[in-house]
Amino acid sequence: MAISMDTDLARVLGPKTAKVMADQLQLRTVRDLLRHYPRRYARRGEMTRLDDLQVGDRVTVLAQVKKVSTRKMNRRPGTLTEVTVGDGASSMRLVFFNHRHAHLDVGEWGLFAGTVGTWQGDKQFTHPDCHIITGDDDDWARAMVPIYPASKDVSSWVVQKSVKMLLDDRRSLEQALDDPLPEAVRHRHGLVPLATALVQKHRPETQEQVDEADERLKWDEALVLQATLAARRRAAALEPGISRPRRGGGLLDAVDAALPFSLTDGQREVGEELAAELAREQPMNRLLQGEVGSGKTVVALRAMAQVVDAGGQAALLAPTEVLAAQHARSLAAVLGPLGRAGELDGDPAGTRVVLLTGSQKAAVRREARAAVADGSAGIVVGTHALLQEGVEFADLGLVVVDEQHRFGVEQRDALRAKGTRPPHVLVMTATPIPRTVAMTVYGDLETSTLRQLPAGRGGVSSSVVPVRDKPAWVDRAWARVREEVAAGRQAYVVCPRIGDLDGGGKDDDGPDDADGAPPEEQGTSDRRPPLAVLDVAEHLRTGPLSALRVEVLHGRMPADEKEARMRAFAAADVDVLVATTVVEVGVDVPNATVMVVMDADRFGVSQLHQLRGRVARGRHAGLCLLVTEAPSTSPTGQRLAAVAATTDGFQLARLDLETRREGDVLGAAQSGRRSGVRLLSLLDDEALIAEARVEATALVEQGAGLADHPELAAAVAALALDDRADYLEKA
Ligand code: ADP
Ligand code: MG
C-alpha cells in the first residue's frame, strides 16, 4: 500500500483503532503516529523502578508474573484474583475481580498498564491492561521495549504494534517520508537519515541509537522552527516601510535638553541603534529587553520624538490602563509645553500627546481620536485596544509596545493595516529572555539589551518570610513597613487575588495574573484559597498598620478610581497600597521602598522579579519580602530563596525556564504538537538551536529560498506559531 505522511491512519490501522487513536491521543495521520515518540524505554531487569511510582500515576510497567491466587471474596459474591508481578528488584500487586485475566501464568513476562492505587499500604493496579509477551513476539527479544504515552483505550503496546507496521515496510516508509532536512545540512552535522532515525527512536537496540535518533529528530524540529522565523524576517524585510531619519532642532533635541539626568551608556547605545534603524526604509522589528528600572521609557520616548520630527506619529501601547495613564502623565511631564502644541500654553514646535483608553468618556475619546486622525497628535498613548478599535492614524510611523508580551504575529498584521506602509515596531520587556527563548519564541525580532541601571540606585534586597517556620517574622515584616513609612517612604503589599466584593464572578486581575506557580504545584485542592487584597487590606487597617493610610488597587475597580488611587499613591497621599499584580508592570513610584508579597509561592519567578522592580526605582534602598507558607526545604521554598538570592534577571529567567516545561514555553500545554516541538529542549539544546538558526537563515536567503526545499517549506507552512508569546505571560 502506498502511504504518505498525510495518509489517514484509518487506512493503515483500520477504522476502529484509528478512531480511538484520534479521539484519545489526537493521532490522525501517519505523520502523527511516527512523531508520537516513546516516553521512555523499558529494559528487562532494570525495567521500571516500581518503588518510584506515585499513587495516581498512570503507568506501564514491564514485569514478570510471580504469583497468582484466586479466592472467594468474604463480604460479597464473586472472586478476587491477586497477581504479584515483579521486575527483580521490587514487586507489586495486580487485582482482578471475577476471573478476569485469570489466565496469567507464573513466569510469564508482560506489560501491565494501569493507574497506581494503594491497598493496605501496598501499591497495586486494579484491573490493569495486560499484554503478555509470548515467545513468538519478536518485541520481547528486544533489549529495550518502547513505552508510549498511552490513553485509556490505546495502550502503549497498541501504539507499538501500529508503529511497527509502519516501520516494517522500510520501502514504503522511505517513500512516505518528506524529509525536511536538506542532505547537505544533514551531512554537515553528521546526522542519520530520517527513516533510520525513526526506526532507532521507535525500536532501538541500544541507548546510542536513541541518542543518534534524538539528535537528528531535534534537528528537524529546530530547523523547521528557525526556517519559519527566518522566512518571517525576510518577508518583513521585503515589505518596505517609511524611513524616519533624525532631524535636528525638533522634539528630540528638546527632549534631550529637558531630561533631568544624563543617559546611561546603554541607553545611548540602544538609542543610536534605534535611530539608525528608524532611518531605514526596512521596518524595524526590535525587542528591547532591559532590567526593571533600566530606563526603557526614555529610550522609547527618544525614538518616538525622532519619528515625530520626521513627520510621522508614534503610538505607545501599554498592557493596562493604569500603565497607559502613567505613561501619558510622565511623557507630558517630560515634554512640558512641547507636548501641548496647539494649546494656549503649548509650544508650536512640539506635538500633542493624547491618551486613548477604553474607559474614557465618549466626548474625550472622540476628541482624542480626531487628533490622531488629523495628525495633530504626534504621540498617542493607549492600551492594546487601540489597535483593535479601528483608530485611524494620519501617518503611523512607530509603535512601541511596552511590557506586552503577547504581541504576536496577528497584532503585527493588524498594525500593517494601519498605514499604507508597515510602521516600525519596538517591543519592550523587563523580563529577561534566555538566549534560546530569544532565538525561538522571539526569533523573528532583533534584540537589544539594556543591562545597566542608572547610577545612584539604592538597589533592592529580598528575603523570604516563611510563615510556618518563623511566624514571628511576619510581625517583623509589618514593623519594617511601619519604619519605612515613618521615614517618609511608601509600601506595596501584593496579593494573588482580589477577594469577595460581590460574592461571585471571576476573581482574577491584570493581564499577567495567571497563577504563575509551576504546573506540578497547582491544582492541589486541599490548599486554602490565595490571600485576597480586600481581606489583607482589612486586616492591616484594623491590625498591624492601623496607624497608616492603607488603600487598595485592583482590576475590578472602575478605571477612573484606579487612576485616582494610583495618582494618590504617586503623590504620597497613601502610605500602603494593597494591590494585585496590576502593579507588576511598569508602575513607577520612586518613593515606594518596601514590597511585601503575600503567598509569594503563588507567583512565578519572573513575576516576582517584576514585582520587586517596583521598589528599586529611586535613590533609597528597596526591600522585598516574600511571605509564604511553603517550608524552606520544599522545591517552592527553594525557588523563592533563589529569587531572593539574586537580582540578575537573566539568571532568574533561566531558573524560570527550568521550573517550566518547554511545552508551556512555546504555548499551551499541548502546543508541542502545534509548534512541532516534541524533543527539543530550550534548556539543553542551545547549541543545536543556534546552529539550526544559522543553517535556516542561509537556506531562506540563498537561491530561491525555501522554494528550493519543498519539504522544508511544507513543514514551515504547517507550523502554527501564532500562540508563541505565552512564554512570558505564563511566567
Ligand atoms: P523601565 O525600564 O523599568 O521601564 P523606566 O523607564 O520606568 O524603567 O525608568 C525607571 C526610572 O528611572 C524612571 O523614574 C526614570 O525617570 C529613571 N531614569 C531613566 N533613565 C535614567 C538615567 N539615565 N538616569 C537616572 N534616572 C533615569
Ligand atoms: Mg517600563
| Strand percentage | 15-25%
The major sheet is characterized as: 7 strands, mixed
- Amount of helix: 25-40%
Bound molecules: adenosine-5'-diphosphate, magnesium ion
Distance between the termini: 48 Å
| Rg over alpha carbons | 30 Å
Number of strand segments: 22
Going across the biggest sheet, name each strand in turn: 6-7-4-3-2-5-8
What characteristic shape results from the CA principal axes?
Answer: globular
Poorly predicted runs are 502-508, 510-525, 662-674, 720-731
Structure commentary:
By secondary structure, the protein is of the alpha/beta class. Helix content is 37%, strand content 18%. It is built from 27 helices and 22 strands. The strands form four sheets. It has a seven-stranded mixed beta sheet, with no helix packed on it. Strands 12-13-11-14-15-10-16 form a seven-stranded parallel beta sheet, sandwiched between helices. The chain has a six-stranded parallel beta sheet with strand order 17-22-21-18-20-19, with helices on both faces. Helix 4 (156-168) packs antiparallel against helix 7 and helix 9 (251-258) packs antiparallel against helix 11. The radius of gyration is 30 Å and the shape is globular. The two termini are 48 Å apart. Residues 261, 263-264, 267, 290, 292-298, 430, 454, 586, 588, 590, 617 line the site of adenosine-5'-diphosphate (ADP).
